[in-house]
Design brief:
112 residues, mainly alpha, 2 helices, 57% helix, binds zinc ion
Length: 112
Amino acid sequence: MPTQREQGVIDEFQQRRKRMMHSFGFCILLIIFALLILQVIDNRPSFLGISQAAWKALSAVQLILGILLAIRGYWQYRCPVCGEIVKGHDKFYFGVLTDPEHCPNCRSRLRE
Ligand SMILES: [Zn+2]
């Protein structure tokens, strides 16, 4: 059984993990949607009466928002004890550990 303090760390980390997953999921949705718009306006120059330039601007905004969301999700995905981003072994890879049992840096327990 984890102590109360450990349980607090686990709960906090699971919150951050959920936030990270949602950010990444939403980022992918925004990018897919932006690409879909670009596809559609390719064939229909004034889709829904909105000019192609306006659609392109909207797609660009969506792409940027998606990327910012992903970065924000990544940035807050930290171990509640030592504050390090929970990354995989390879430091050159952007990859995060999506469901770690322990923090790779301080070994704190992060999952029940
Ligand atoms: Zn840690």
